[in-house]
């Protein structure tokens, strides 16, 4: 008897323990899953033994949908049952979909006593904590039912077979005091198909034919249900069609591998180009043709015939497009066919010193531009030839000094001249010799006392205007030009500075350099220094010949008397400015120098000057091919009998416009990059304003962002802040890249002047400019901002993946702003367009507007949003660390992977990280190619 009582007590205790255990299996959080499973995990079924590429984060799913094996507990409140059994009734149901996907596998379920066949359902009904009966169904399938009205998904389990069994001597099964409470017969006969409907409203319906007939359409109604399933995150992601393996980065798709192969090939090509650059520089420096010395000819004169210039008159069909182009470039509407210069002819002997006089608009600058070989946008006609005393063939070096001094403001005078010498003298000349040449010119121009003074700018005072003009002349003199052409060198100078400058030019002419200078209004002393005078009036040449009193005598013969003691220069300017129609000088009246041989270069052209370089002109060469321009490619050929160059057929122009321009720079590409890098580094050290501003504000914004998003939580609101911080970072990079646009606009004039003088190739300048803008002004500040205390993933691998995306986006935005700065002369227009583009990027980034909600007619624009690819990659990288969302909605605890929230709210694909990396790289490549094309073919000095 004692044994029977003890056995009964043990059975009751065991049943209560089983109920407690079952209820504990209905998890409420990931921590409860961890504690419940710890005692069942061992070395053979530990979670860490799963594939490392998968997201093994343990989570508690509290929705009706089953992923592996789920438990639920519901209250049974049914009036018929409560009439017989007024106490508390509870139903627990275990649904097994795929036991092998449970944490720890089937071994864990076996040790817990919960292992069931796949597709099996077991329901237990408890009354006052004691199990009354159980039902078991097999062959079940799950159908996920989409929620209505924004509610979560539900599930329907359909089972073809079910059987139930009473627990003997329990209250429901004959253990009660009343025969009406004995339901053994009814329970044991429950069989046939079973349907279990569970809803997000925490209710379920247990439907079997007998129960439906007894209790109504919904069968046995269950309420206040708690769903719980301990499952690993990758199981949920796979059920939702998300491949965690690709997101982890360990396995790559074929397209990604192909893209990475292309990137690798490009990197190898860059390395090969660098090696090739070293080889070519070494070869050039070993060239003994120059013998390590600076050569200068015995004297070169210049002669021109019937030189004229008309502003191009576009056809009716092209006039509108050219006006639009000119408006966008900021150069205004073009005139229609105005003649600026008509039939100018003249000859200046070697070592000659000539001035061009005339009022404003007479055509002085146009004539000096043509004689110097500058590119013109209109129609140039006539021919230019060069005379030489010793009859030597070769190339004639022509130097040009513009009216405005365009110099590097942070460089010193000596550094400016050394820079010009290093780039304009041949590669074979030693660096020490180049430096000596710069110092010689420095002394020749009497600039020794300011050798280490910075050039300065309007904001930071440096050297004076006269000193700056002498520096500009020195830049041309370091290469020992045969002919030096100057456009109004005395403009803006006081009388003393102008007098010193003219005396300097006179000294240069006496040393064998041919000097041509346009003078606006010279004093009597300045006028007397010139050997020859050219007088222009409204584009017509009124006089060319000897200086001094010769022009006075010429015009007095024509009836224009000069008052006694009157300044002859002012007298000539009054004649040129008068309203009297004075006939131009005839060719027969022009004095010519007959010494030496003459080589004429025809410059008759349509739209642009044929010489791409201002520093050299052809002389006595069999075939002379000039670099193509964006609008023409003029090819000159020389004949032996009279060495006169003529134009070939214009059909050749249309066939070869795309050819890459040949470089006539004196140094190799690698040397150009090296010298340019030295100047950029000096500029960065001496003018730290922009660098300090970028770093300071980056730190300031980083602190602000850290406070704004300080330790973002793992709630839904915290996840929104987490993505918001990434969007904030991307927007900051986009707008801070505007400084790259302004920087390029500032140095544009200096680049155009130095390119026209063939200091370096445009590719070398562009590469150096990008490197010294991206690294100190983009990457360093970006890294500082990225190190804020927002609370992103601290995994080193993910941080570097994060950094890769940030660097790509920063480079892309920098190149894009460079592109705008090169396309538009007006910096304000470029900045406006860049700001509007940033607004577009933000709109289609997927943060403000859900991309899937945008109308299809506008949705395709998202493919051009680099910020969208950046935000997606950063979000995927962050979520891929196993981020879990734990929150409470209307009192209901929610614990779900951040992957699902990310896909639902923003539409980001979990597998798109490496795709986004390659897309951003493609944008960088596209911007870079476009930028190189524009800089090489379009960004040229035109007059």
From TrEMBL:
Domain ABC transporter, residue spans: 319-572
Region Disordered, residue ranges: 608-631
Protein topology in the membrane: Multi-pass membrane protein
A GO-annotated cellular component: membrane
SMART domains: AAA
Keywords attached to this entry: ATP-binding, Membrane, Nucleotide-binding, Transmembrane, Transmembrane helix, Transport
PROSITE patterns (alphabetical): ABC_TRANSPORTER_1, ABC_TRANSPORTER_2
Protein's cellular compartments: Membrane
Compositionally biased intervals (Polar residues): 608-623
Major location (coarse): membrane
Pfam families with a match to the protein in the record: ABC2_membrane, ABC_tran
Protein name per Swiss-Prot or TrEMBL: ABC transporter domain-containing protein
């Amino acid at each position: 008897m004692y044994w029977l009582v003890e056995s009964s007590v043990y059975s009751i205790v065991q049943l209560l323990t089983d109920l407690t255990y079952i209820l504990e299996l209905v998890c409420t959080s990931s921590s409860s899953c961890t504690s419940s499973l710890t005692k069942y995990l061992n070395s053979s079924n530990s979670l860490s033994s799963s594939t490392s590429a998968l997201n093994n984060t343990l989570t508690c799913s509290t929705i009706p949908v089953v992923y592996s094996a789920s438990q639920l507990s519901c209250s049974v409140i049914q009036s018929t049952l409560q009439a017989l059994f007024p106490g508390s009734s509870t139903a627990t149901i275990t649904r097994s979909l795929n036991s092998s996907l449970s944490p720890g596998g089937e071994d864990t379920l076996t040790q817990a006593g919960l292992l069931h066949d796949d597709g099996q359902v077991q329901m237990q009904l408890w009354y006052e904590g004691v199990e009354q009966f159980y039902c078991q169904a097999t062959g079940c399938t799950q159908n996920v039912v989409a929620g209505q009205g924004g509610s979560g998904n539900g599930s329907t389990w359909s089972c073809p077979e079910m059987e139930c069994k009473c627990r003997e001597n329990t209250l429901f099964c004959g253990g009660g005091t009343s025969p009406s409470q004995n339901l053994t017969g009814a329970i044991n006969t429950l069989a046939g198909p079973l349907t279990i409907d569970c809803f997000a409203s925490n209710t379920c319906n247990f439907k079997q034919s007998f129960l439906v007939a007894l209790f109504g359409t919904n069968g046995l109604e269950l309420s206040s249900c708690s769903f719980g399933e301990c499952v690993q995150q990758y199981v949920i992601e796979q059920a939702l069609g998300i491949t965690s393996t690709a997101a982890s980065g360990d396995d790559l798709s074929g397209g990604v591998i192909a893209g990475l192969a292309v990137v690798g090939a490009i990197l190898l090509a860059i390395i090969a180009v660098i090696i090739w650059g070293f080889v070519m520089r070494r070869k050039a420096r070993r060239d003994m043709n120059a013998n390590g010395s600076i050569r200068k000819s015995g004297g070169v004169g210049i002669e021109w015939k019937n030189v004229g210039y008309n502003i191009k008159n576009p056809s009716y069909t092209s006039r509108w497009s050219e006006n639009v182009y000119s408006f966008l470039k900021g150069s205004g509407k073009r005139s229609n066919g105005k003649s600026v210069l008509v039939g100018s002819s003249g000859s200046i002997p070697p070592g000659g010193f000539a001035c061009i006089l005339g009022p404003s608009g007479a055509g002085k600058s146009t004539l000096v531009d043509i004689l110097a070989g500058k590119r013109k946008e209109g129609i140039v006609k006539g021919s230019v030839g060069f005379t030489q005393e010793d009859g030597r063939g070769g190339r004639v070096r022509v130097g040009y000094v513009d009216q405005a001094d365009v110099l590097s403001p942070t460089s010193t005078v000596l550094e400016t001249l050394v820079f010009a010498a290093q780039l304009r003298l041949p590669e074979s000349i030693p660096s020490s010799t180049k430096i000596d040449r710069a110092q010689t010119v420095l002394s020749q121009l009497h600039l020794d006392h300011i050798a280490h003074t910075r050039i300065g700018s309007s904001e930071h005072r440096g050297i004076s205007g006269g000193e700056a003009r002498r520096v500009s002349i020195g830049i041309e003199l370091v290469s020992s030009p045969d002919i030096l052409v100057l456009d109004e060198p005395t403009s803006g100078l006081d009388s003393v500075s102008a007098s010193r400058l003219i005396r300097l030019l006179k000294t240069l002419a006496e040393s064998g350099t041919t000097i041509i200078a346009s003078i606006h209004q010279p004093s009597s002393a300045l006028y007397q220094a010139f050997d020859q005078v050219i007088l222009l009036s409204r584009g017509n040449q009124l006089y060319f010949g000897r200086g001094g009193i010769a022009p006075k005598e010429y015009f007095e013969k024509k009836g224009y008397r000069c008052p006694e003691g009157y300044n002859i220069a002012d007298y000539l300017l009054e004649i040129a400015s008068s309203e009297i129609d004075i006939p131009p000088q005839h060719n027969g009246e022009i004095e010519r120098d007959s010494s030496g041989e003459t080589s004429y270069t025809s410059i008759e052209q349509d739209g642009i000057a044929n010489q791409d370089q201002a520093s050299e002109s052809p002389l006595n060469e069999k075939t002379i091919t000039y670099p193509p321009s964006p609008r023409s490619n003029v090819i000159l050929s020389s004949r032996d009998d009279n060495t006169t160059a003529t134009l070939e057929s214009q059909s050749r122009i249309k066939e070869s416009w795309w050819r890459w321009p040949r470089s006539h720079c004196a140094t190799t590409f690698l040397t150009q990059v090296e010298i340019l890098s030295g100047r950029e580094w000096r500029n960065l050290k001496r003018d730290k304003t922009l660098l300090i501003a970028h770093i300071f504000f980056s730190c300031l914004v980083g602190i602000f962002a850290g406070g704004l998003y300080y330790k973002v939580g793992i709630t839904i609101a915290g996840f929104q802040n987490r993505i918001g911080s990434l969007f904030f970072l991307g927007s900051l990079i986009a707008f801070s890249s505007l400084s790259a646009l302004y920087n390029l606009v500032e140095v544009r004039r200096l680049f155009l002047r130095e390119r026209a003088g063939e200091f370096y190739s445009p590719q070398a300048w562009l590469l150096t400019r990008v490197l010294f803008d991206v690294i100190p002004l983009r990457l360093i500040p970006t890294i500082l901002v990225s190190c804020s205390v927002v609370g992103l993933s601290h995994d080193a691998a993910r941080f570097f993946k994060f950094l890769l995306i940030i660097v790509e986006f920063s480079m892309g935005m920098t190149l894009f702003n460079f592109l705008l700065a090169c396309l538009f002369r007006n910096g304000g227009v470029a900045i406006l367009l860049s700001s509007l583009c940033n607004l577009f990027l933000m709109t289609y980034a997927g943060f403000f507007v859900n991309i899937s909600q945008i109308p299809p007619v506008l949705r395709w624009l998202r493919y051009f949003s680099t910020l969208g690819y950046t935000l997606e990659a950063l979000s995927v990288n962050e979520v891929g660390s196993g981020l879990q969302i734990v929150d409470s909605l209307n009192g209901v605890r929610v614990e779900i992977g951040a992957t699902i929230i990310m896909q639902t709210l923003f539409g980001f694909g979990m597998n798109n990280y490496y795709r986004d990396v390659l897309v951003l790289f493609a944008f960088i490549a596209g911007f870079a190619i476009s930028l190189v094309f524009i800089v090489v073919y379009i960004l040229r000095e035109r007059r």
